[in-house]
Request: fold
Amino acid sequence: MKPNIWEVMKKGDGSFEILHKGELLRGSIPAKWLEAELGRYGFCGQEYKDIRDQLEQSGKAKIVL
Reply:
């Protein structure tokens, strides 16, 4: 069984991708919709803020559950 790993990556065009267990779930997400898209998967509030912090620092965020 693969670990429960979520990844969010910022693409060169400024949009985002969401991956779960290495598989692309959503791609080409505009920045203004990222919070809503992550909310669909249960990432909101402080979790969303932590993801945004990671994205600002390195362009990607990794969440291991």
